[in-house]
């Protein structure tokens, strides 16, 4: 079992346990903020389930039907997770507003306070493990799952603080107000996740930093080719794809040109993990006036 599947399974287990604990305490105390946290954790569990299956599918090698692999499954997973968070946040806000106009007594505030801080501690540990593996494996699904749990750390702390203030001030209307603040925080998280997961589905280009790495490695060999053009980049799951047209002097042999392409591909892959490079060879005679070709020939 690979690292991605192991840590995704850990997220499933922790989320399941915390949902049961929060829901039980939320119903026992009548706290809408605790119940909202239980709902948030339920969304986290659904996200963890989606992440678990998506990382297993995304690691499948390319096949005849999917020549570019299955990497975008992780992006689809991230989009679904973001939409789930949006729905949960809206539901929490609606229920909290109802609670403001119909406040109720909150019992066993101390128990709720303890459960929230236990939840924060557990999610902090699991989210760190998820982030670590997500960065190592460049997994958007695991990163999304880690983001959920990281948000849960802050929201649980917020709810815990709200319960503490209720215990000190005896102002029960603070409970739905805290729940609304939690939901707003979650909404912000959902929009950020939606953008980061959805963009690769549109084949948006790699970041400027990544493109600069590609260009620098190409330009290392500028003395032996005329120029390059039509540089295109995109990302699918964790795989970064780049393709370009490399123009050589007319008298350059195909073998020599191919060897240079291999060196460029090797250097890019050394500096940019999980990358696939496609280089199209062109002769200078076909596309230019040969001024650059003459310069290149003089250098050689």
TrEMBL record:
<protein>
    <submittedName>
        <fullName>Cation-efflux pump</fullName>
    </submittedName>
</protein>
<dbReference type="GO" id="GO:0015341">
    <property type="term" value="F:zinc efflux antiporter activity"/>
</dbReference>
<dbReference type="Pfam" id="PF01545">
    <property type="entry name" value="Cation_efflux"/>
</dbReference>
<dbReference type="InterPro" id="IPR027469">
    <property type="entry name" value="Cation_efflux_TMD_sf"/>
</dbReference>
<feature type="transmembrane region" description="Helical">
    <location>
        <begin position="38"/>
        <end position="55"/>
    </location>
</feature>
<dbReference type="InterPro" id="IPR027470">
    <property type="entry name" value="Cation_efflux_CTD"/>
</dbReference>
<feature type="transmembrane region" description="Helical">
    <location>
        <begin position="173"/>
        <end position="195"/>
    </location>
</feature>
<keyword id="KW-0812">Transmembrane</keyword>
<comment type="similarity">
    <text>Belongs to the cation diffusion facilitator (CDF) transporter (TC 2.A.4) family.</text>
</comment>
<keyword id="KW-1133">Transmembrane helix</keyword>
<dbReference type="GO" id="GO:0006882">
    <property type="term" value="P:intracellular zinc ion homeostasis"/>
</dbReference>
<dbReference type="Pfam" id="PF16916">
    <property type="entry name" value="ZT_dimer"/>
</dbReference>
<dbReference type="InterPro" id="IPR002524">
    <property type="entry name" value="Cation_efflux"/>
</dbReference>
<feature type="transmembrane region" description="Helical">
    <location>
        <begin position="12"/>
        <end position="32"/>
    </location>
</feature>
<keyword id="KW-0472">Membrane</keyword>
<dbReference type="InterPro" id="IPR058533">
    <property type="entry name" value="Cation_efflux_TM"/>
</dbReference>
<dbReference type="GO" id="GO:0005886">
    <property type="term" value="C:plasma membrane"/>
</dbReference>
<feature type="transmembrane region" description="Helical">
    <location>
        <begin position="76"/>
        <end position="94"/>
    </location>
</feature>
<dbReference type="InterPro" id="IPR036837">
    <property type="entry name" value="Cation_efflux_CTD_sf"/>
</dbReference>
<dbReference type="InterPro" id="IPR050291">
    <property type="entry name" value="CDF_Transporter"/>
</dbReference>
<feature type="transmembrane region" description="Helical">
    <location>
        <begin position="106"/>
        <end position="126"/>
    </location>
</feature>
<dbReference type="GO" id="GO:0015086">
    <property type="term" value="F:cadmium ion transmembrane transporter activity"/>
</dbReference>
<keyword id="KW-0813">Transport</keyword>
<dbReference type="GO" id="GO:0015093">
    <property type="term" value="F:ferrous iron transmembrane transporter activity"/>
</dbReference>
<feature type="domain" description="Cation efflux protein cytoplasmic">
    <location>
        <begin position="206"/>
        <end position="284"/>
    </location>
</feature>
<feature type="domain" description="Cation efflux protein transmembrane">
    <location>
        <begin position="10"/>
        <end position="201"/>
    </location>
</feature>
